[in-house]
């Protein structure tokens, strides 16, 4: 534990990411799916309490990288991961790290809203329940309410908490999934194209929500929409063909990219 | 480009528009017709089967009985008056004599005319022995009194009364004599011979006399076997499927297991019967003809069905649900038991019930393990000899008497009713538990 905090402090002091402490860090991350290599030596810092956007054309490896951050790739039999990824300075692929605990600290919101086919209340309460975060019903009720409020969904569902979560609209479902993720008090929230299945109004709501959430959480978002990356993120990383081409403050990436490929992509010349 | 061509009405546009719309619709119409014909053939044969079975079998549910004022004469039951000291007297007494006496008195026959008395006695089923004995043993105080009792008529009288016997045939060539038919008509006029609900069909055990033969033993044997199959095959099958589908690494070994499970589902049931005979009876020394062996063999047969159905329904659970659970930090076990299994449950239930229904109708393996036996007494445990519903049908179909023909069809109706109840249950359960996502 001591070592951990020291490492964390060291990270905080490192000048790597404009004053912000580094929450997660990837070093030379490679991923193979069987014979095929999907990621080639990605090194990326995820600063704390900021939104980091991963952009790039389809199949560029941004989702693969995102899924490395909470070891969701472990569920794919043929996937092999190399390099090092740390959370607060601790290697998350270390044998001492329990993947279940890691996923509680690094939550994930998926592309398609995927609420459990249970009540809204049960959806949110499931995480706290399996992690033993509460001692009684009152505490659990509190967490559910708080999470739904943070996900800006409380006012819409407070009178029908015991109706099915799948009966909500797409945008509400996605916010329910965010509430469900928040309920286990993660430190990092990974979002894999969270708005791609949503209409513009629901998208706006989720984006607004991300902006609020970054006060308390570190957010990494994969998105296909460059406007969205520009709107919500503070830092942007551009992936292409499994390589991290360029990474930096969002303003810089979108106004004066260094790499030709980045420029071509954000100006819509390919992708 | 094509739009432009269409709008200008140029020659290529016409060529492009000639896509054979009429032919397409004609093809669709033909296909629909084929489908309707296929379904029609299926329904025709189903109806033919149903009509044939029901027309032959419905009469089995009613059995002819004669209402007799039976005097429980102490002189017949206990001529030496020893019943106080020897309770066996009540068990071995000549009860058919009581019924015969009652009928003789009722028909006004001279008790001295032995030939006529014998013919009259021949109308009453030997089943009256157990019926009257049970009455006396249950309540010995009825000895000496007279009670009206409906006793079963013999199968021959039953057939004649149901109109199944051609009475124009020469008397010597049929089993019911003209005298008996005359008495039968006389009794019918008085309303003391009638067709009554045949509860014996469901309650009696095996018997060589059709009127006292029933499916009681077969029903109990089948129930024992279904319970054994359910208790063994469901947990083993579901556990195996969950392991294969969710936990096992995908490698050559699991591929091999999968191929073998699918093969197992296609193995002829008689082979399972031989296996059961070799392993359970010869090697493990289980009793012959026992429902436990039948249950074990049917479990082996049902397992592949349940495993295949369970795996299919586990695979049908959307991966997004698994991701959601894992992403929240659920362990794989929690993911399976909290989310995947409940969603797969309707499919598993349906598969299990269909597997059970299959097992219920299975005959061949049971013949090999000796469940084709003459069992008159109810099996009290699964270790006792028993038969099964389809085996009972097989055995009755082999009997020669006319009365067994209707019983065979009646037994088929009962088996079909069991199957229908199970399959309807499967549909109801699926409807009730089916969830959308």
Automatic annotation (TrEMBL), chain A:
It holds the Pfam family ABC_tran. It comes from the Bacteria. The keyword Transport applies. Residues 24-266 form the ABC transporter domain. Signal peptide: none annotated. SUPFAM superfamilies: P-loop containing nucleoside triphosphate hydrolases. One of its GO terms (molecular function) is ATP binding. Keywords: ATP-binding, Nucleotide-binding, Phosphate transport, Transport. The keyword Nucleotide-binding applies. PANTHER family: ABC TRANSPORTER I FAMILY MEMBER 17. Belongs to the ABC transporter superfamily. This is Phosphate ABC transporter ATP-binding protein PstB.
UniProtKB/TrEMBL annotation, chain B:
Residues 219-425 form the ABC transmembrane type-1 domain. It is a multi-pass membrane protein. It comes from the Bacteria. The chain crosses the membrane at residues 31-54, 217-244, 264-284, 290-314, 335-357, 410-429. InterPro entries: DUF3333, MetI-like, MetI-like_sf, Phosphate_PstA. Its main location: membrane. Keywords: Cell membrane, Membrane, Transmembrane, Transmembrane helix, Transport. It is found in: Cell inner membrane; Cell membrane. Pfam families: BPD_transp_1, DUF3333. The keyword Transmembrane helix applies. Belongs to the binding-protein-dependent transport system permease family. CysTW subfamily. This is Phosphate transport system permease protein PstA. It comes from Mesorhizobium marinum.
């Amino acid at each position: 534990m001591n070592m951990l905090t020291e490492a964390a402090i060291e990270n905080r002091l490192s000048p790597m990411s404009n004053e912000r402490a580094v929450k997660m860090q990837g070093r030379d991350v490679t991923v193979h799916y069987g014979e095929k290599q999907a990621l080639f030596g990605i090194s990326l810092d995820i600063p704390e309490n900021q939104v980091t956007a991963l952009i790039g054309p389809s199949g560029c490896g941004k989702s693969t990288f995102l899924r490395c951050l909470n070891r969701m790739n472990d569920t794919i039999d043929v996937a092999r991961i190399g390099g090092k990824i740390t959370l607060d300075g601790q290697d998350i692929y270390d044998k001492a790290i329990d993947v279940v605990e890691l996923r509680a600290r690094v939550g994930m919101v998926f592309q398609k809203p995927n609420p459990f086919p249970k009540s809204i209340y049960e959806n949110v309460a499931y995480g706290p329940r399996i992690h033993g975060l509460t001692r009684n019903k009152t505490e659990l009720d509190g967490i559910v309410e708080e999470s739904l409020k943070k996900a800006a969904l409380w006012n819409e569902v407070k009178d029908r908490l015991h109706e099915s979560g799948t009966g909500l609209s797409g945008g509400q479902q996605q916010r329910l999934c965010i509430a469900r993720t928040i309920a286990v008090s993660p430190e990092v929230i990974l979002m894999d194209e969270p708005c791609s299945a949503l209409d513009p109004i629901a998208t706006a709501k989720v984006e607004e929500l991300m902006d609020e959430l970054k006060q308390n959480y570190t957010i990494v978002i994969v998105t296909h929409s460059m406007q969205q990356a520009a709107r919500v993120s503070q830092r942007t990383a551009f992936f292409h063909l499994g390589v991290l081409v360029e990474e930096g403050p969002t303003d810089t990436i979108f106004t004066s990219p260094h790499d030709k490929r980045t420029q071509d992509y954000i100006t819509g010349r390919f992708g | 480009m094509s739009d432009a061509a269409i709008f200008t009405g140029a020659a290529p546009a016409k060529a492009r528009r000639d896509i054979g719309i009429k032919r397409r619709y004609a093809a669709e119409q033909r296909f629909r017709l084929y489908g309707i014909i296929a379904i029609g053939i299926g329904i025709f044969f189903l109806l033919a089967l149903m009509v044939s079975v029901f027309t032959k079998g419905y009469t089995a549910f009613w059995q002819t009985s004669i209402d007799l004022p039976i005097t429980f004469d102490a002189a017949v039951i206990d001529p030496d008056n020893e019943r106080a000291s020897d309770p066996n007297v009540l068990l071995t007494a000549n009860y058919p004599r009581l019924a015969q006496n009652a009928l003789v008195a009722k028909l006004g026959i001279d008790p001295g005319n032995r030939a006529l008395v014998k013919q009259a006695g021949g109308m009453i089923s030997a089943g009256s022995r157990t019926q009257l004995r049970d009455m006396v043993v249950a309540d010995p105080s009825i000895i000496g009194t007279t009670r009206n009792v409906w006793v079963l008529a013999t199968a021959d009288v039953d057939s004649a009364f149901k109109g199944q016997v051609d009475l124009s045939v020469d008397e010597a060539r049929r089993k019911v004599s003209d005298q008996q038919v005359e008495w039968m008509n006389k009794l019918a006029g008085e309303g003391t011979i009638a067709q009554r609900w045949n509860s014996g069909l469901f309650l009696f055990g095996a018997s060589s006399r059709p009127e006292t033969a029933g499916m009681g033993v077969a029903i109990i044997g089948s129930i024992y076997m279904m319970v054994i199959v359910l208790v063994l095959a469901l947990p083993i099958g579901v556990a195996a499927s969950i392991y294969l589908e969710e936990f096992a690494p995908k490698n050559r070994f699991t591929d091999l297991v999968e191929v073998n499970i699918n093969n197992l589902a296609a193995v002829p049931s008689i082979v399972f019967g031989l296996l059961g005979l070799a392993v359970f009876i010869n090697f493990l020394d289980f009793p012959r003809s026992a429902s436990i062996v039948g249950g074990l063999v049917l479990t082996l047969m049902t397992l592949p069905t349940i495993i295949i159905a369970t795996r299919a329904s586990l695979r049908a659970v959307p991966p997004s649900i698994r991701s959601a659970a894992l992403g929240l930090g659920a362990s794989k076990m929690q993911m399976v038991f909290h989310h995947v299994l409940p969603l797969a449950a309707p499919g598993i239930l349906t598969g299990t019930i269909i597997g059970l229904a299959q097992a219920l109708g299975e005959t061949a393996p049971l013949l090999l393990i000796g469940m084709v036996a003459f069992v008159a007494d109810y099996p009290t445990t699964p270790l006792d000899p028993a038969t099964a519903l389809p085996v009972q049908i097989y055995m009755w179909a082999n009997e020669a008497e006319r009365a067994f023909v209707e019983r065979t069809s009646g037994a088929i109706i009962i088996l079909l009713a069991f199957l229908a109840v199970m399959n309807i249950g499967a549909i109801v359960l699926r409807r009730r538990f089916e969830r959308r996502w």
